[in-house]
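4.2 Preliminary Data

To establish feasibility before requesting continued support, the project team ran the inverse folding procedure on a target of 371 residues. The structure was first converted into the token representation described in Section 3, and no sequence information of any kind was made available to the design step. The complete token record follows.
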């Protein structure tokens, strides 16, 4: 037997790799193993700890100055508003706690990687959007909320609950301030409003995915919550569209390129046969006492399924390793391009409309490793 090759031993690996007894690549700030397993990467070496502490103190001073002043200003603006946040509520404390530094750190080292596979978009999430958030409290809240949801997914259940509570707190406050900002969009806040509008559906869909049926609140079941998140996204999108033609120099507009870029459609994709069966079923089982209403519904379903085919085909194309197009926006386009007539049928719980949404949900479930 040949002698065993010597290897360099190191005690500088991250905590996750040490606990898992696997070799750490020691890449900073996040090692390759932690990126692959989608877990938080932490180093406890003396040098890195000292650097982290220094950075956290500086960041805390920055957050305290910017966020506190912005929160006071927003509290004054929201006074008397239906969307105002109760300043005396302990769960809606307007000050960002120092524990939120963990959330910001996680977003800029881990969460941002899950939002796109396009390097330029990843850099925007990691730096540009965070910098905008430091100037606009509602966006910072949205960033912290999404990071908290991500951590709730990664951490064990007892610990995860506390992150869900943090996410809900930040999102509730941020959403109230976001609604106020929507009424007065200008060049000074457009980037922040745009970024929050992109984060909003991700947060809503993540919450919907974790909803459970409660007999005392049936309106909060997973379907109702999912439907509300789609309606919210459609409303914000329709409100934002006119502004996109005005503020054309926004540094965040490239994030929306998925709505205009020519992503190829794969000729073959998973679910093709199922969509064929779905379209036939919608045509056969769509009955009404009025022939004209029945024909109109069949047309609505056919158009909606056609749009779903396009989404499936683009997702399959974007999934190919040779492309750099994958982004969560490809999923969300379908929710804003379907017609109001289809959404009304969905609100009325028509079986065919719900069957189409179920096929869309299978696509989301097949990519539950991304937002």
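Position-by-position output of the design step:
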């Amino acid at each position: 037997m040949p002698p065993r090759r010597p290897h360099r031993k190191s005690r500088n690996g991250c905590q996750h790799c040490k606990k898992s007894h696997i070799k750490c690549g020691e890449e900073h700030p996040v090692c390759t193993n932690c990126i692959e397993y989608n877990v938080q990467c932490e180093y406890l070496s003396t040098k890195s700890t000292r650097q982290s502490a220094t950075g956290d103190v500086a960041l805390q001073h920055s957050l305290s100055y910017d966020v506190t002043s912005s929160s006071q200003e927003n509290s004054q603006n929201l006074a008397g508003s239906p969307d105002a946040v109760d300043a005396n509520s302990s769960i809606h404390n307007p000050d960002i706690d120092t524990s939120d530094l963990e959330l910001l750190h996680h977003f800029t080292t881990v969460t941002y990687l899950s939002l796109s596979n396009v390097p330029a978009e990843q850099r925007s999430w990691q730096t540009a959007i965070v910098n905008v958030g430091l100037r606009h409290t509602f966006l910072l809240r949205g960033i912290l909320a999404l990071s908290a949801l991500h951590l709730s997914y990664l951490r064990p259940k007892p610990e995860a609950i506390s992150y869900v509570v943090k996410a809900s707190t930040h999102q509730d406050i941020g959403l109230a301030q976001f609604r106020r900002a929507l009424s007065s969009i200008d060049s000074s806040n457009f980037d922040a409003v745009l970024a929050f509008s992109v984060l909003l559906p991700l947060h809503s869909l993540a919450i919907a995915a974790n909803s459970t049926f409660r007999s005392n609140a049936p309106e909060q079941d997973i379907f109702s919550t999912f439907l509300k998140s789609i309606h919210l996204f459609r409303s914000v999108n329709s409100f934002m569209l006119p502004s996109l033609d005005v503020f054309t120099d926004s540094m965040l507009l490239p994030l929306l390129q998925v709505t205009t870029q020519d992503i190829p459609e794969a000729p073959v994709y998973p679910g093709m046969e199922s969509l064929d069966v779905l379209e036939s079923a919608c045509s056969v089982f769509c009955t009404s006492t009025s022939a004209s209403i029945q024909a109109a519904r069949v047309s609505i379903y056919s158009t909606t399924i056609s749009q779903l085919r396009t989404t499936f085909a683009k997702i399959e194309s974007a999934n190919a390793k040779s492309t750099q197009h994958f982004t969560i926006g490809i999923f969300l386009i379908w929710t804003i391009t379907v017609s109001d007539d289809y959404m009304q049928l969905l609100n009325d719980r028509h079986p065919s409309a719900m069957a189409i949404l179920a096929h869309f949900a299978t696509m989301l479930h097949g990519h539950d490793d991304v937002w």
